[in-house]
Amino acid sequence: MQLKATYRKHTLQFLLPAGTSRGVYTTKDSWFLFLFDGEEFGIGECSILKDLSIDDSPYFQEKLAEICDQINDGTFNLNQTLGNFPAIQFGLETALLDLLNGGNRTPFPSDFTCGRKGIVSNGLIWMGDKTYMRQQIAEKLDKGFSCIKLKIGALEWPTERELIADMRHQFSASELTIRVDANGAFSPLQAQKVLSELEKLHVHSIEQPIKAGQWNEMAKLCAETPIPIALDEELIGISSKEKKNELLQTIKPQYLILKPGLLGGFQASDEWVSLAEEMKIGWWATSALEANIGLNAIAQWVFTKNVSIPQGLGTGSLFSNNIDSPLTLKGEKLFYDVSKGWDLDKIAK
Q: Which of 44, 232, 269, 346 is the most buried (most CB within 10 A)?
């Protein structure tokens, strides 16, 4: 088939500032890639996180335009790997899968896309002052989340520890799972102390306690840690299966956090899953703050993996100008509500 391609840029506006140890997000850019086969079309989302995505570059849109031109003149090989542009790879793969499955936004048809089953997600708590974080925690608990994930590393650790202790005082570990995400905020020495104190609070796991790239230091932490450690940023930019295997064999983490939009799409993420399962390493997936186009594809892919652990997919309500979609959070579960349609006016072709 002779495909045609085009794209549209869309700047997402956060309803409230989203704080991490890397800084505060108020906007986020996405590019929606359309693949046409006659009148039918598929859509994928190419979305980057500033200072985190390896394709966060002034040339990103230029590269996307070049790929669309090559698709349109028939010189682009759809099977090639775009190693330095994982976000474009993710968007292209999603658009093609969407098109091949009828162009109705179901790249991975399943009981999820039929509306019969949902996906349990954690409740995400952004960094901010103590009052703001407590407010977020109360809201998530009121909505029925049984797994809470806190961004940590921006406030003084004693303050963050107090917030976690407050939750644990209210709810036992059997009633509420608490995860924390440091985004590489701590030094290896600080991390040892934090890990010890998190164990006393019965915290489930910590994501990326130290900055990525310190394989030996991370391996030591993972070998000695009293609570599970999950790798997140550590996986970004690792594209070959050999390098993935080397990283996991060296560090031997307890969990992986898979963000297909940052890792180069679903085939790339499947490689991580296969290696992790061979090594008895757990994993879960999260969005990389995509709009509903990308979030939808990630959720559908995750569902096909028959996972039971809570995922990180409750991010669709963060934006004031997201794409209206069938994705619906009911309590802690994400559903695909077949009674709702897709409103693509914001990204009209």
A: 44
- φ, ψ dihedrals at 165, nearest 5°: -65, -40
**Residue 43 phi, psi (nearest 5):** -125, 135
Tell me the catalytic residues: 151, 259
Query: Residue length, the chain?
Result: 349
What residues have CB less than 8 Å from 130, skipping those under 6 apart? 155, 159, 162, 163
Give the predicted TM-score (pTM) of the model: 0.95
Q: Which residues of the chain have pLDDT under 70?
A: 1, 21-22, 348-349
Decide if 258 contacts 235 (C-beta within 8 A): yes
Q: Are 341 and 327 in contact (CB under 8 A)?
A: no
Asked if 15 and 27 count as a contact pair (C-beta separation under 8 A), the reply is: no
DSSP for residue 347: G
Residue type, 312: G
**What pLDDT does residue 349 have?**
47
Q: Tell me the domains of the chain and their CATH numbers.
A: 4-100 (3.30.390.10), 119-347 (3.20.20.120)
Q: Phi, psi at residue 240, to the nearest 5°?
A: -80, 150
pLDDT of the residue at 21:
63
Is there a contact between 52 and 211 (Cβ–Cβ < 8 Å)? no
Q: Residue with structure tokens 């109705």? A: 104
Q: How far is it, in rounded angstroms, from Cα 254 to Cα 228? A: 5
